[in-house]
Every structure is written in C-alpha cells, then in structure tokens.
Amino acid sequence: MPTTLLDIADGVARLTLNRPERHNSLVPSLLDSMNADLDRIAGHREIRAVVLQASGRSFSTGGDVAGFHAVPRGQRRAYAEGLVGSLNRTILALLRLPVPVIGRIQGAVTGGSLGLLLACDLAAITPQAFIQPYYAQVGFSPDGGWTAMLPARIGAQRAREIQLLNQRVSAQEALQLGLVTTCIETDTLDATIEGWLEKLKTMQPASLASTKALLAADCAAGLEAELRSFLELIDSDEAEAGMTRFLNRGI
What we know:
Low-confidence stretches: none
Distance between the termini: 30 Å
Structural class: alpha/beta
Strand order of the largest sheet: 1-2-3-4-6-9
Number of helices: 12
Radius of gyration: 17 Å
CATH architecture: Alpha-Beta Complex
Number of strands: 9
Largest sheet: 6 strands, mixed
Order of helices and strands: EEHEHHEEHEEHHHEHEHHHH
Mean pLDDT: 96
Oligomer: single chain
C-alpha cells in the first residue's frame, strides 16, 4: 500500500498519511512520498486549501523507534540524517504553501509528528487525541519543531516542562494552549472542516497567501539545529538502551 494518499478535487488537496498498521509512524518512504505529494500540491494552481489527515487510530506517532532500532549501530546516523532531514523539508514545505493547511487530528501525536501539526494553519482535534514528546524517555534529541517552533507557540517554560517531564498534553489542553483551533467529537469533525473549507473558498487567494507568508515563523535554522543535535545522540549507548526499554515496555 502507498504510505501517503493524495486526492485533489474541487480546489482542495487531501493529503493522507497511510501507514495505519504502524500508527503512521515516520519512516523514509512515508516522508519521501509526502514530500513528492507536497511538490505536486505546490505546482497545482487550482488548489485553494490542503487538508492534512491520517488513516487509522492515530495521526502519527513520530519517528518509528523500531525502524531506528533495526538499523545497525554505526549506520543510524546516516539513517537519522535522511529521516529527520526529510521531516524538516516536509514541515517547511507545509509552512511555505501559499494556501491554508488544515489538520484533521485524531489519536496520538507524538515525537516529530508534532511538526506536522505545528505547520497547520487551522486544526481540529478529537477529544481522545493527545500530544507527547517521549524524547527524554527514549534517549533521542527533540526534532519536529519541539524546540524550534513549540516555545514560540506556548511559551518557553511550558515547552520545557512538557519535554523534560515527558508530559502528555490532552486535546483540551492543546486547545487551551493554542496548538489547535477546535476540539470536537469525531462525528462532527469532518463537518467542521468542510465548513472551514467553504469559508476559505470565499476569501481572496492573494490575501490568504500574503497572510500566511507574514505569519510564518522563520524556523529553518532551528530545525537544522534540531537535526544536528539528533545526530549527536542517535548512535549513543543511552539511545540504544532507551530504544530497547521503549520497545520492550509492557513485556
């Protein structure tokens, strides 16, 4: 099965993460496919908005820890450089699109997948969804905008607390922190997004593009710094032990 799906109709591009059997965890094939889809979207003049969504129970659990662990030590740095580098390109591509990006968020949003949510202009989240870093538990350095983008959104002290203590952010708290636009039950999620889409279609495209460009944070340098720190830790003894504990939890 393809790891992403792209449907373009009636001026709306719907980009779906399609790895539900692994909770849409991020692997090179998924991010490569996503970046190719975003290139198609960027070159399509008729698109007025993008809906970023995911199949299955989870939006995305971030980098696939089992995928990292399966790479032999000594090769993980190269694997991580490709993966996190691709994730950074995805985040920046979403931010730089001249049309609004709407996130449809359910289930887990953990690890680097937070960056996909942070790159959305509007987001609807279900009450059962949650956000959690897991970096300090696994032994990875933060990626996906946890340090490059999150502090600007919620404040540096709250961002520190969540990451250092591996706190879980509920859907309602995500709304209170301004990480999402609305928290709404699953049975009305799509209707809410359709309402946004209809309203966006009445707006002037050039004005929307200008608003997005002016509001977009310049986070490229911060994402690059995250990548370099990630590479420093990924092949360490600490990360090896942390991945093993994480993968064996509950056994």
